[in-house]
Design goal:
0% of the residues lie in helices and 58% in strands. A hairpin with a 2-residue loop joins β1 and β2. It has one domain. The N and C termini lie far apart (29 Å). The protein is mainly β. It is built from no helices and eight strands. An eight-stranded antiparallel sheet has the order 1-2-3-4-5-6-7-8, with no helix packed on it.
Length: 95
Amino acid sequence: MKKDGIYNNGQKVSEQSGKTLTYFYKSGAKKAEGNFVNDQFEGLWLFFSEDGVLMQEGNFNNNLKDGEWKRFSKNGELEYHEEFKEGKKIRKPKS
């Protein structure tokens, strides 16, 4: 994800407050939010649809996916989840 910049309409692409980095859609709605430490994604990150619905959540360690990642449907139902270790998928989604 691009960290810096401004959309054509003047909306910021992202904003950092302390360790929390937030990405925005062009509309200004929150796109993603999580920890950003030493120029790396760290810990829990949440990803949202433009209308504010949680679509995905997962953890980063040293900028790599690590641990459980979940994806949700627009009505909040779990669509799938995967397990990662150092950026590599180690467990396939459960049905």
